[in-house]
Automatic annotation (TrEMBL):
<dbReference type="InterPro" id="IPR001845">
    <property type="entry name" value="HTH_ArsR_DNA-bd_dom"/>
</dbReference>
<keyword id="KW-0472">Membrane</keyword>
<dbReference type="InterPro" id="IPR036390">
    <property type="entry name" value="WH_DNA-bd_sf"/>
</dbReference>
<dbReference type="InterPro" id="IPR036388">
    <property type="entry name" value="WH-like_DNA-bd_sf"/>
</dbReference>
<dbReference type="Pfam" id="PF24266">
    <property type="entry name" value="HTH_HVO_0163_N"/>
</dbReference>
<feature type="domain" description="HTH arsR-type">
    <location>
        <begin position="91"/>
        <end position="186"/>
    </location>
</feature>
<keyword id="KW-0812">Transmembrane</keyword>
<protein>
    <submittedName>
        <fullName>ArsR family transcriptional regulator</fullName>
    </submittedName>
</protein>
<dbReference type="InterPro" id="IPR011991">
    <property type="entry name" value="ArsR-like_HTH"/>
</dbReference>
<dbReference type="InterPro" id="IPR056504">
    <property type="entry name" value="HTH_HVO_0163_N"/>
</dbReference>
<feature type="transmembrane region" description="Helical">
    <location>
        <begin position="64"/>
        <end position="85"/>
    </location>
</feature>
<dbReference type="Pfam" id="PF13412">
    <property type="entry name" value="HTH_24"/>
</dbReference>
<keyword id="KW-1133">Transmembrane helix</keyword>
<dbReference type="GO" id="GO:0003700">
    <property type="term" value="F:DNA-binding transcription factor activity"/>
</dbReference>
Amino acid sequence: MEPRTTHLIFTSTKLEKKLIICLLFFILATTAEATEYTVSPFPSDQSGASINGEEVIELKDFTVYWQFLLWLALMHVLSIIDILLNPAKLIFAILGFRIVDGVNVLDNPARDSIYAYIKANPGVCFSDIAKSMGLNRGTVKYHIQILETQKKIDVYKDSGKIRYFQNNSMYGEREKKVLVASQSITNQRIISEILNGKCNTNLDLAREIGVSRGTISWYMKNLKEIGLIKEAKRGRNIIYKINISYKNLVERYR
């Protein structure tokens, strides 16, 4: 369940693989030595007959068989040692549970659905996941923690609010800022109006969007803090414009 536990499992698995390789090499080497022979014409059709009068004793080679049994026994012992050295694994094995790792992390249907939702909605917050998927917050929190532990998702903090992204280096820091800002409908309207060139002052934006000037000022403050919006004074008015560094990203995700 925890990273440390998973690491122990992987370490013991690697050791087991190395031992298997060594044993296979040993079996092949000793078998080749034990079965070494020279081909020469046999003067008689009688099985087991002496060639030069020497005593002939028939032997059966059980080398491969007993080495195979030894290998099976050793693997069994290693698996027992692995469990005994890992109390968490022993407890979960007794209770019928299995430890989640990077291989089976998405085997759980609910967890897989949460992961798919985060992929489809980059920058989504915890409450939106629970509400949109109809899951209780405890269930969502549990699966989110596992996805984060197994590095399937990336956690992004935005003004004290936690946002989630797929962890595949797909989104850079600037893209995350734009995507998070786009989660707000009011932010979307403000950015869209400025991009279209229709409104670029506090008063015009308030009238067009249908909110108070104080509301526009509050949203503008946040957009300026993350660097998406710049302002310039023109006479007695303050003119807003999209930061040129973010313009392409804003147009892509608008």
